[in-house]
Amino acid sequence: MLLHIILVVDDVSLQKKLRTSLSRPDTIIETAKDHKRFLAKLGRKVCDLAVISQNLLAEDATEQIQKLKNSIDAPSVVILTEQDNEQERVRFIAAGCDAVLSLELSINKLSKALNAILQRRKKIARAVLTVPRQVEEADISDFAAKSPAMAKFVKMLPRIAKADSSVLLLGETGVGKERVAHVIHRESLRNNCPFIAIHCGALPESLLESELFGHEQGAFTGATKSRRGCFELAHQGTIFLDEIGEIPLHLQSKLLRVLESHEIRRVGGEKSIPVDVRVMAATNRDLEEEVKTKQFRKDLYYRLNVVSLTIPPLRERTKDIPELVESYIEYLGPRIGCPVTDIEEDALDVLCKYSWPGNVRELINIIERAMLLCENDMITTEDLPQSIIEPEILYEAGTWPDEMMGQPLKKARKNIVESFERNYFTALLHLTEGRVGKAAKKAGIDTRSLYEKMKKYDLNKKDFRPQE
Questions:
Q1: Which of 61, 80, 205, 422 has the lowest CB atom count within 10 Å?
Q2: Quick check: 378 and 342 in contact, CB under 8 A?
Q3: Per-residue pLDDT for 449 more than 50?
Q4: Domain C-terminal end among 361, 391, 406
Q5: 8 Å CB contact between 209 and 251
Q6: How many CB atoms lie within 10 A of CB 189?
Q7: Number of domains forming the structure of the chain
Q8: Whole-angstrom Cα distance, residue 187 to residue 181?
Q9: CATH code of 289's domain
Q10: CA-CA distance, 114 to 21, in Å (whole number)?
Q11: What percent of the chain has pLDDT over 90?
Q12: Are residues 318 and 329 in the same domain?
């Protein structure tokens, strides 16, 4: 996180020494110009540490400090005093000051004390900003990767994680793009710094710019105080922009400037703030098509797409399902208070044959539901929803899975078509014993088109030939 320090010091020489001793790549230091009213304004500014000369404080300073410390995101306050008055010290500490330091201390001791307060504040902020512990401890080896598609994907991750390039994560809804971003951050050189995720499609356009870049007091109606944006919070760490394709065009140009200049400007602000952030973005949209239709800026696309990773959908990695199911049962058991420890073979076979339009997210939901309904320690087919066991019958009857109903029409149609095509071509290749030409003739398409479909759905003709 980028730390902001305000010096309200009447001694110009001391002010310069403090600025020099506190300067670091993760700090911005300002000096207050209006000494008389700075304390009243302090609560409306972005500030982590305020260093104040006691000589500049008004008589009601303790009341103002107390009011300031009761506000959200209140800064740490340090008073510099010429007099070693124990009664005054107690009064300021009781009002909420973090320390009262004597000006008789050397500049080394003063800066050491102030840096200790900054480190404590940064540690607290990091605990709030970083990802949950179970995600922090995630490792590349945690991915189930017995399927060729996932094995190939996982093999690329260590090399990409150690680089500092922008990463664009592509894939359908529910494949785990944010999980992959967490793991890349965890394996990167920035792993001790914040990971900030923002869902670009979940916020209205009027708020998204403020969330990304922050705003100054009075920038718009309701902006009663200045606020940091996600880029400042992620300083020296990683920012993950989920559903990047949802960002409106005018914000795309501002995001491009940030990526090129490594500086942000808050909404309503005049100063540029330097930031050091690795950007990872994700989308389930076809950004190349969006570029062609001028819905997404070409220059921003190329800036984000330094490294592009497409996460395979679950239907293309069915060999990973047994391992995934085992890990989810182990993970969910103690969290939902279920004694379930295993799944019977027939139930597992049903899960492996299902097309999973909702991908891994849908699998997790199904496993949790089955564990809650299970009457013994092993999941059976009776514990699975009918939509998994007989999806085609349910679609015809008009009873749709919740995961499907949560998707827009275009996406739902695409998932159903792909599920049908995969099952259709699988059955056709079984029928023709892997003879692609014969299967293509029965399907009424050319051989090349069938080969493309087989590649898309990870179907190999050798798998359908009779075993000798």
A1: 205
A2: yes
A3: yes
A4: 406
A5: yes
A6: 11
A7: 4
A8: 10
A9: 3.40.50.300
A10: 10
A11: 44
A12: yes
